[in-house]
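Teaching soon. Got one?

===
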Amino acid sequence: MKPDEGRGRTIQDEVLIRKIKAGNQQALRLLIERYKHHIFKITYSVVKDRQEAEDLAQETFLKMVDALPSYQSQGFKTWLSRIALNTAIDAHRKKKRRKEELTAFDEPELQVSHGESAESEAIVMERERKIREAIAHMPENYRFIIHAYYLEGKSYQEICEAYNLAKKTVEMRLYRARKWMREHWKEDEF
């Protein structure tokens, strides 16, 4: 793509976004059509499953529509790509947690898993303890949302229902909680 083409696409995107914010559904269809393959590639690169990647691409566009009022015209493709990547990573993590929860019931609790030494399991358990302890020292409004999402594996919708919160509130608190953790925790502490 030539440099002028990229600039032209950016201008076209901004025009479409203004129309979408004004309620133009055709502009929304055009924007989705323009980026659907790009978003699919991103989601597929994370989940490696065609059907799931398609579902996540659709979810990305739904999230885009919800978040569009807060879009600040700072590179739409990058902004949308970030939404797609975070959506796919969240789905992948959630799927992995569910798989771990299901396999936890299959094995007796005292059985040492194959291939791992008691020492490495103790290190993992100590790390988990430190993480839980750090979460306990977070501000209350972040603590419950992090606990519900990461430790209990609840979806945004389940958190909304459990705590009687709007979806936007859940998204914003998770965003702020993650930001708080980046600012106050160091990775080597765990």
